[in-house]
From TrEMBL, chain A:
Its EC number is 4.2.1.-. The lineage of its organism: Bacteria, Bacillati, Bacillota, Clostridia, Eubacteriales. This is (R)-phenyllactyl-CoA dehydratase alpha subunit. GO terms for molecular function: hydro-lyase activity; iron-sulfur cluster binding; metal ion binding. Keywords: Iron, Iron-sulfur, Lyase, Metal-binding. Pfam families: HGD-D (PF06050).
TrEMBL record, chain B:
It comes from the Bacteria. This is (R)-2-hydroxyisocaproyl-CoA dehydratase beta subunit. It is an enzyme of class 4 (lyase). Its cofactor is [4Fe-4S] cluster. It comes from Caproicibacter fermentans. Its EC number is 4.2.1.157. One of its GO terms (molecular function) is metal ion binding. InterPro entries: FldB/FldC_alpha/beta (IPR010327). The gene is hadC. Belongs to the FldB/FldC dehydratase alpha/beta subunit family. Keywords: Iron, Iron-sulfur, Lyase, Metal-binding.
Length: 411, 370
């Protein structure tokens, strides 16, 4: 029997964007642990809750969705989902929620731990499932729940009535948090936060737009990892610095003709939906092995939060994925596909996400038509490994590739 | 009219919404479809239009599969199916609220799947109680009014709405009264369902008149004892096959927490000089429902209270498959029932279900425990 020889990975460059972004993600957890140890109140926060609020108030929060993704990516998804199912939660419920509710009970998951919450910050611009999930946490742990309701917008523009409703809730949330934590809102600090968030956003938008180059200077799977920092930490100075580093690297890659996509880029696709975290390697290599680079996702557009004032911020949070009408959601994707010379669309029909998948068949038909590209979909799940079939994925990707090949005039 | 004759009339209406639609259209009335869970029917009524509920049907899904993935509830799937296959032909518009994620998708799919029936969105706030929430509800109603006018040419007046608010409040009262009477008199689960279901397909003043008559007749009949009294909770409880199992096993629905039934009638429009403000305040006052934000899970307490008040021995949850708001609430309901010593059952239901054997076994076993 021969001993396995492990390849020595080169030490990560501490000045690289990847390293910096990884550090930010890890620090978010360790900061929360330290804050809790100091006796500060820490929160669990929905991914699209206006991050400007906890950041301006100087609160430490961690993100159950990120934690669930991390647990799922490290192989713990099924174990925690089953734990929740044992409590009576249906296996039809979002797997992030099932993992999080199980974690609330177990209070330990070696894949990714985080402190238990003293309050929860909920925002339903991603889905109404979020409300139910956080209600159950708040009730069971008997902790305050700050609820910002950003309704699904059936219109292309955000109405004055919706802006006013959101604005009032933002202030209500701020005042509730001041009372709960004893920390104070500072307009000066908000201006700083807004400026840093704008810096991060501009760098992110410009970096992801580098996909317009052929070949793209990056593998789109990078975005699935980096977007977590954009969602949760974009108002931190370190995040703005890291995003600017990312942009610089992508520009340099383009100039040198290199890419983080470690294969010949034969086809360029858009990936639709949340990643299949338990099957990240399978889904990634299924593309890479065929020379398919996922050059863009809606995340490329979604997390560019650029606004001028408080009302602009309210409107920005109404224009996140899952809060938009089909037409706006479609047009944003069509623009990305056209700007980035996309040749095919691969849709993840995500068992966990009714809202993301519930009008995707119609929207993807319209995107395919508008861009003249083929569309393929596969069944999967963001965190429950049981809802994915590698064989189906392979067949669908192969089919998509064959049509893209035919469209290129190949055999 | 005898109780049986009246109940037969309710059954006839509940079983043939298409006939009701044709009747109203033949009278020259315009009909507006109302999707689950709450729509401002009072507004539609006040504009001289006929609101009719659309909660899908017990049938297979074919065409709607082009729009919805399989893991969306069968209520949404079959509403879309019926729309695509022309069963709502003649309807002037559909009002779809965005109270759950699948409803949000129904509105978006509807525009392309059923383009000849205009989609009118009703966006309700979840933070419905503060003044800013009430203002947002009112803005949503104003949008519905404007879209209804565009779709039908009908005009809105606050005076007419005040009348409709009164008509709906009166209907609420007779439905609440019916639920109480049915808890103690010889009304089968299927008949009880007919009374609730028919309400969705009639102008409320007509339904009120019929239910009043029924209530009066039923009150004259002797109390019906000796059955196992339960509270039923869920989105829907209208499947004839399932209700037959209740009746066969002598299970009496002593009260319900069903969205299609009593949840509609708990809250009246309050007194207010402005009828539209009053209607917005009605929504603000609504509670105890899985699609309405409920930090304290007051719904769970309300179910226990309902069971206590009606001397129920258990709670039967009819879980609409893929309805995540209800699925999240089930766990606290189950725990609360266990703590209170109430038996509880969770029966998964689906509009595409044809085999109720599992439900039958569960209910039989439940019955044998008493």
């Amino acid at each position: 029997m021969s001993e396995e020889v492990k390849k020595q990975r080169p030490a990560p460059d501490p000045n690289s964007a990847k390293f910096k972004l990884g550090q930010i993600a890890a620090k978010a957890y360790s900061d929360c642990v330290e804050a809790k140890a100091r006796g500060e109140k820490v929160g669990w926060c929905a991914s699209n809750f206006p991050v400007e609020i906890p950041e301006t108030l100087g609160l430490h929060v961690c993100y159950p969705e990120n934690q669930a993704a991390a647990i799922a990516a490290r192989g713990g998804g099924e174990r925690l989902c089953s734990e929740s199912e044992g409590e009576g939660y249906s296996n039809d419920i979002c797997a992030y929620a099932r993992i999080s509710l199980a974690y609330m009970k177990l209070k330990d998951a070696p894949e990714q731990n985080m402190p238990q919450p003293d309050f929860v910050l909920c925002c339903n611009n991603i889905c109404n499932c979020m409300i139910k999930w956080y209600e159950n946490i708040a009730k069971e742990l008997d902790i305050p729940m700050i609820m910002i309701d950003i309704p699904f917008n059936p219109d292309y523009e955000v109405s004055e009535a919706q802006t006013a409703y959101i604005r009032a809730q933002f202030w209500d949330a701020i005042h509730q948090l001041e009372q709960i934590t004893g920390k104070k809102w500072s307009e000066e600090r908000f201006q700083e936060v807004k400026k840093i968030s704008g810096r991060s956003s501009r760098a992110w938008l410009e970096a992801t737009a580098c996909a317009k180059h052929n070949p793209s200077p990056f593998n789109g799977f990078d975005l699935l990892n980096h977007m977590a920092v954009m969602v949760t930490a974009r108002a931190k100075k370190e995040a703005a610095d890291a995003m600017e580093t990312l942009l610089k690297e992508y520009k340099e890659n383009h100039e040198k003709g290199v890419s983080t996509f470690r294969a010949e880029e034969k086809y360029r696709i858009m990936f639709e939906g949340i990643a299949c975290w338990p099957w990240l390697r399978v889904t990634s290599s299924g593309l890479k092995d065929r020379g398919i680079n996922m050059v863009t996702t809606i995340y490329a557009d979604a997390f560019g939060f650029i606004y001028d004032d408080f009302d602009g911020m309210c409107r920005a949070y109404s224009r996140v994925p899952n809060a938009m009408c089909l037409e706006l959601a479609r047009d944003k994707r069509v623009k990305l596909c056209k700007d980035d010379h996309v040749e095919g669309l691969l849709v993840h029909t995500n068992r966990s996400c009714k809202l993301w998948s519930g009008f995707m068949p119609e929207m993807s038909r319209q995107i395919g038509k508008a861009c003249g590209i083929p569309v393929a979909s596969f069944d999967g799940d963001q965190a429950d490994p049981r809802n994915f079939s590698a064989a189906q994925y392979d067949t669908r990707v192969q089919g998509l590739m064959e049509i893209m090949e035919e469209n290129k005039g190949g055999n | 009219m005898a109780v049986d004759e009246l109940l037969a009339q309710f059954h006839e209406i509940a079983a043939s919404p298409k006939k009701q639609l044709e009747k109203y259209l033949a009278q020259g009335k315009k009909v507006v479809a109302c999707a689950p869970v709450y729509t401002p029917e009072e507004i539609i009524h006040s504009m001289g239009l006929v609101p009719m509920g659309v909660w899908g049907a017990d049938q297979k899904v074919g065409e709607a599969k082009k729009y919805y993935p399989a893991f969306i509830c069968s209520i949404m799937q079959t509403v879309l199916e019926l729309g695509i296959t022309g069963k709502y032909q003649g309807v002037s518009a559909i009002v779809i609220p965005s109270l759950c994620d699948s409803l949000k998708c129904l509105g978006q799919n509807w525009k392309y799947a059923v383009p000849d029936i205009p989609f009118i969105p009703m966006t309700y706030p979840q933070n419905r109680k503060p003044s800013y929430g009430i203002a947002f509800t009112k803005a949503g109603y104003e949008r519905v009014i404007s879209d209804l006018s565009a779709a039908t040419g009908a005009k809105f007046s606050e005076v007419a709405l005040a009348d409709s608010n009164r008509i709906y409040n009166e209907h609420n009262a007779v439905m609440r009264e019916f639920a109480e009477i049915a808890a103690d008199h010889a009304v089968s689960a299927a008949q009880r369902s007919d009374v609730f279901k028919s309400a969705w397909f009639m102008r409320k003043e007509e339904h009120t008149a019929m239910v009043k008559q029924l209530n009066a007749e039923l009150a004259q009949t002797p109390k019906d004892k000796g059955k196992i009294r339960v509270v039923v909770s869920g989105i829907l409880a209208d499947s004839p096959s399932l209700l037959e199992i209740f009746d066969k096993n002598e299970i009496r629905i002593a009260a319900d927490d069903v969205a299609f039934e009593s949840r509609q009638y708990r809250t009246d429009v309050p007194e207010d000089p402005n009828s539209l403000d009053a209607l917005a305040r009605k929504y603000a006052n609504m509670d105890n429902c899985s699609v309405l934000y409920d930090r304290d899970k007051k719904r769970v307490d309300s179910i226990l209270e309902l069971a206590k008040r009606h001397d129920a021995r258990g709670v039967i949850v009819l879980m609409t498959k893929f309805c995540d708001p209800e699925e999240f609430d089930y766990v606290p309901i189950k725990r609360a029932c266990e703590a209170a010593g109430l038996l509880n059952l969770n029966i998964e239901v689906d509009r595409q279900m044809v085999n109720y054997e599992q439900a039958n076994t569960m209910i039989q076993t439940f019955r044998e425990m008493f």
